[in-house]
Specification:
The protein has 191 residues and is mainly alpha-helical. It contains 8 helices and no strands. It has 2 domains: 1-124, no CATH class; 130-191, no CATH class.
């Protein structure tokens, strides 16, 4: 009889633990889903303000960027992680272009470069991995004015993607890097 009671207690205890674990899993999944939804809401807010209202809410963009980077670090295999990380890099580029001073511009530009580097390390076969070269090239040229680094990034893109539709345009763009407005006008025959 004593063995039977012990057996019943072990079963009840096991079922209690399994039930608690199952409940914890459900709560964990619910919290995870909430994190995904919060991240997507932040992105949609920043995106709609930018594209529909034509203004940049630096606070919303900043929160989105931080959340996206954190989310991708914690959940690198989640279906939205790579896309949100890439969009965080683009968001940092947008903030860099709109920054009120050179220091903030450089800070956001470096943040964008770091995010694109992280994307390529975390998702080397990701859908946007090759475009990280292009984005960094744009940052170096258009935001930081570092022509040499821009050319290096564009050449990396070209060498890795010789058949991409963007490649011929980048080859032409490289030829124009560093030209003054006057030189560009003469080269492109613009009056």
């Amino acid at each position: 009889m004593k063995n039977f009671v012990t057996y019943i207690l072990v079963i009840v205890f096991s079922l209690t633990i399994v039930g608690c674990h199952h409940s914890d899993n459900k709560n964990g999944k619910r919290r995870f889903g909430q994190k995904q939804a919060e991240l997507l809401d932040l992105y949609n807010s920043a995106d709609s303000i930018y594209y529909q209202q034509h203004r940049i809410d630096t606070a919303v963009f900043g929160r989105f960027i931080r959340k996206a980077v954190d989310f991708a670090a914690k959940y690198p295999k989640d279906e939205i992680s790579s896309d949100m990380l890439y969009r965080a890099g683009v968001g940092s580029m947008i903030l860099a272009k709109a920054a009120p001073d050179r220091e903030r511009t450089a800070e956001y530009a470096k943040q964008a470069i770091a995010i694109f580097n992280t994307y390529q390390k975390q998702y080397p076969d990701g859908e946007k991995a090759e475009f990280c070269y292009y984005q960094r090239g744009i940052i170096y040229d258009d935001i930081l004015g570092d022509i040499r680094s821009a050319e290096d990034e564009f050449r990396d893109f070209i060498n890795r993607n010789p058949n991409d539709s963007l490649t011929p345009q980048l080859q032409q763009y490289i030829k124009l890097l560093g030209m003054s407005e006057k030189e560009l006008g003469e080269t492109l025959d613009i009056e």
